[in-house]
Specification:
- This protein is mostly helical.
- It has one domain (3-64).
- Helix content is 57%, strand content 0%.
- It has three helices and no strands.
- It is elongated.
- One of its GO terms (molecular function) is G-protein beta-subunit binding.
- InterPro entries: G-protein_gamma-like_dom, GGL_sf, Ste18_fungal.
- This is Guanine nucleotide-binding protein subunit gamma.
- It is a peripheral membrane protein.
């Protein structure tokens, strides 16, 4: 492989990396943005509306069958 071919390959590789970086930046630029206050308000609404079984002091005691974090009462397999 001659020196000029090697330089051409390196240049093409650099160009490809720059084009990929440019695409990522363009995608980021086209991403929908919302104001911080709007995002905060949305997060507060979600937290107030979503029941969290790990916070019984706020939402009340959760029954074992409704608690996704309670240990399973059934075994995972049966051997007969």
């Amino acid at each position: 492989m001659s020196l000029s071919n090697k330089r051409l390959q390196i240049s093409q590789s650099k160009l490809q990396k720059i084009e990929e970086y440019n695409k990522r930046l363009t995608d980021q630029l086209n991403m929908q943005c919302i104001a911080t206050s709007e995002a905060s308000e949305s997060l507060i609404r979600y937290c107030n509306a979503t029941n969290d079984p790990l916070l019984p002091s706020i939402w009340g005691k959760v029954e074992k069958e409704d608690d996704p974090y309670a240990p399973s009462t059934t075994s995972c397999c049966v051997i007969s």
